[in-house]
Amino acid sequence: KGKNVIFVAGLGDIGLDTSKELLTRELKNLVILDVRENTEGLCALKEICPETKVTFIKYDVTVPLDESKKVLKKIFDKLKTVDILINGAGILDDHKIEATIAVNYTGLVNTTTAIMEFWDKRCGGPGGIICNIGSVTGFNAIYQVPVYSGSKAAVVNFTSSLAKLAGITGVTAYSVNPGITRTTLVQKFNSWLDVEPDVAELLLEHPTQSTKECAENFVKAIEKNKNGGLW
User: What is the rounded distance in angstroms from the CA atom of residue 10 to the CA atom of residue 33?
Assistant: First the structure.
């Protein structure tokens, strides 16, 4: 309650339901950075808690680090303080090797690096909280999509390192790693070198969860706020 939150990819499948769940907690500000423009979804969010200011800024996580810093500076200039950064951008397509690494890992690292300029206690900052959305594939790979799984393993290790650096930076971190969630992401996707053309169908034979179920537990993890947590 009363927190300022930046949510990267807060209008996606899991992102939108998580944004809705967050707004039931009476945030002060929710700033959504997303490459997609979902006007209908944004309007629905603004109706949940009129007291919370919901702002949308178009943002591509693959932009250079300096561009990320400019976007965050505008947010900090306006809000003065930000309590939580949620990094949620992701794609699943092992034909797109560079894009997968750029969105799932490099973009997350750059956005995190950019916000340190405003949070790092060594620079007089107040500290902050980073929540990174990973995937169970980060520690239990879907071997037919090794590029995606590898990018998520990188997220897990990067987040673990951030948590151990909290004593130096004042910034804590944890990761939320969903299992198979019924999103547009998993309906049809490409395996690496087409080693398994039916990988999407095979994946959905396993137990799944809805985006709403995922969002509810996601916000529970945020409320627990456990530095180094691997949820």
Answer: 7
